[in-house]
Queue: 3 jobs
Job 1
Amino acid sequence: MPSKSLELTKKLFHEKAFQIAIVGAILFLILAHPILVNLVDRLFAFVGIQLGDTLLTVVHSLVYAVALYYSVFIILSLE
């Protein structure tokens, strides 16, 4: 017989809000990683576009927003 805490954890993982929070955290971890930020900065510099720190943050924020939007859309349409 499963324990009450196991049932509570199982219920928590099936809640949409929790799933969205986990996906958002993972996306943020990936997109805000310094290695990726430096890679994108070098890529823009390679094509001749110089981005300052603030504009680079805005670019990453926009990419995060789009990725989170589609992730939430997929999570909400699963059930």
Job 2
Amino acid sequence: MARARVISALALLFVLAIATVVAAAHAAGVVHQDIKLENILLRRRRQHEENENQIKVALCDFGLASTKTSSSRLRCGTP
């Protein structure tokens, strides 16, 4: 049961980190439009980086992304 709590807590941390990344993109006026597991990258921070024992979360493949002000219907990227 304790292991399940730890896994649930880690999952929640990852979801919050992903939400933070998406919020940053939205704040910059970018809408990703293709969020899926394959487009979320995780890596341990390097020794010289701040908070080196933490996991860094990144969102990749902005091929389908658009700007909030874009009126274009043209999209590219993975379907």
Job 3
Amino acid sequence: MRKQLEFQEVIGYQFQTPGLLSQALTHSSYANEKHMKKGSDNERLEFLGDAVLEIVSSEFLYLNYPKLPEGFGQVYSGL
């Protein structure tokens, strides 16, 4: 907990839900090794983050490159 507070001081941001910070910083292999409860790792947050990035990048490509052929944007958004 102390390290999380130090981390927040360093980055200059105070998380409203400290549990999410712990979850975001917990890799699935560590959670499995420490027999933590299901959902304690960052996989669900990673999935959500990937979905948000896909939406944002797709919108950017759609709005800024209207002449790109269909499917071409999927190459970029999949990177």
